[in-house]
Amino acid sequence: MSNDVLVFVEQRGGSIKKASFEALSVGRDLASSRGGSLHAALVGAGVQGLAGEAAKYGAAKVFVCDDAKYTQYSGDGYAGATKACAEASGATVCVFAHTAMGKDLAPRVASLLGCGLVSDATSVSVSGAEVHATKPVYAGKAYKEYVSSGVTCVSVRPNAFTASESPGAGETVSVTPPSDDILAIVKEVLAASSDAVPLQEAQVVVAGGRGLKGPEHWKLLEDLAAAFGPGVAALGASRAVVDAGWRPHGEQVGQTGKVVAPPLYIAVGISGAIQHLAGMSTSKYIVAINKDADAPIFKVANYGIVGDAFEVLPKLTEAIQALRG
């Protein structure tokens, strides 16, 4: 059985997603521990030129399935193409980033390969011929370890791993696209135009709760996020805030929203219900700002500020601006 590892490299608009560089770094470490090679899979239209980017992160071979029919993402089409890349590669471990695309694609590929899938893993390692993957369960109250000794698929949580370059040979291998594999055709994608960094990819998440008292006070969070500089911070919100219509659902962090793991998570006016903690408790550093000293959020916070957010936020924003320049 091959010890090689294949990483699906997600690209949108001709650019590789940051989470895929993290997945490539994970795959490289796994391949090294197994005594195998790191391979990458690129699927899309006009993606041949991106092979060099995957090679920077250790890919010895880049399997490219390039066809006009993959211009828009298709779960059926991309799954068939990724399976073809996996079979051409001979890899027995397939790694995906646990992004919106990865959540849809990984189980499809696992099904086609006839293997199991560990999704949203925060730790992946090798012990002999076994692959060990750990993920949070029960709303983050516990961690469960999965062990596999056969063909395995695993998706890794964005920001839970560090991306690091380590150039590989990057040999490009063209893969013939499967025929008649697309059951539904995407005619048009209507996306909100925004220069904001995606919530799950942000290095800093500034999230607000009902303690801000109303949507008119979100400017305080926007100013704090902006203080970190462009492309660094994103805004988040608790479920109560989203349910009240203060913020869009796309900003919701929690069990029924998005799961994030940034290096820095700032919770403002958020009490810390278990549903919210399930979406952010694996952040590297958590800063909580709340006037209630007994708020549950302080139990998971690395740093806590007991005080009025309307007084603390402007001072914190000024301090970060001064620190940056």
What's the arrangement of secondary structure elements?
Layout: E1 5-9, E2 11-12, E3 15-16, H1 18-34, E4 38-44, H2 51-55, E5 61-66, H3 75-89, E6 93-97, H4 100-113, E7 116-121, E8 123-127, E9 130-137, E10 142-148, E11 152-156, E12 171-174, E13 204-208, H5 218-227, E14 233-237, H6 239-243, E15 264-268, H7 274-277, E16 285-290, E17 303-306, H8 309-324
Parallel strand pairs: 1-4, 1-6, 4-5, 5-12, 6-11, 7-11, 13-14, 13-15, 15-16, 16-17
Antiparallel strand pairs: 2-3, 8-9, 9-10
Describe the model.
This protein has 325 residues and is an alpha/beta fold. The protein contains eight helices and 17 strands. The strands form four sheets. The protein has a seven-stranded parallel beta sheet, sandwiched between helices. A five-stranded parallel beta sheet has the order 14-13-15-16-17. Strands 8-9-10 form a three-stranded antiparallel beta sheet.
Please tag this protein with its features.
Rossmann fold; 325 residues; 26% helix; 7-stranded parallel β-sheet; alpha/beta; 5-stranded parallel β-sheet; single chain
